Amino acid sequence: MSTQYFRFSAPQEFEAGRCALLEKLLACANQQVITNDWRRDAFQVLAQAGAVMPALAPAVLCAENLAPDAGWVCMATPLHYLADSSSVRLPWDGVLPLDGTAAESLALDFNRVWKNSGVGLIAGRTGHLYCAFERAPSVTTQDPEQVRGRHIEPFLPSGDDAMRLRLLMSEIEMWLFQHAVNLARAAQGSVVINGLWLWGGGTTVKTLPTIHGWCVGDDLFFNAIGAGNASSEARVGAGVIVALQEPGGDAWRSGGLRWLEAAALQLRSGRISRLELSAGERCFTVTTRGTRAFWRRRKPWWESFA
Length: 306
Hints:
28% helix; alpha+beta; 9 helices; globular; four-stranded antiparallel β-sheet; 306 residues
């Protein structure tokens, strides 16, 4: 039987509304696990036997039909940090979108400044930025979504070549200070970009893995591997749902809640056998049998992810 993986946003500081359906499902959960890579877990829901999961940045570049001549590429996500007397924090709204014009301007200027350095910046067609390296570094990086609301130091690149990426990120901060793109943002009343977060890197790929099932929502990786999937409109059976909204709010009621209701209906009717509920570093599993445990005490959903 099929599984659906439901990923939603759960900030560290909650000012949320209640969600009766989510709380009912969490009360019926059969197990919970700590997950360090939710995308890898969700990929297994869709993967065919023997499928190799590509890294995020190469997958998105492949979906955009961009094939850089590089040994390793990663995302370069624009951020706005907040600094205090002893540390630097990424606020919850500190991950910034870019339009295509601004992304292209930053890429052109970066490649001028870092010419012949073995590193370059690529502007995607949808405003995303990618950093390309001639030589693949030995590093572990973190999704900026996991950093929101937290001090950044524990989430900076780690590994044998971590200092190389950390130094580059520091140089980028200085480069962005008083950059023309930021001056234009400030003139428009927009928050300025004071850093690029390097993450999600891997070797480039020419093709994406074939999946069974569908993807819906707003996630770079799953939008890439699910593009053109013939069964995506049916939204029945195996699937991955990514809802960026926090449960309980107005945006949730028009987005995430609608998808969760459909998944819960399929679970109760036996059309899927498992529903994975994932946020932050926790994932809860609900099975068809578990939904019969209606007597279990319900609590505010955010307590399950604290």
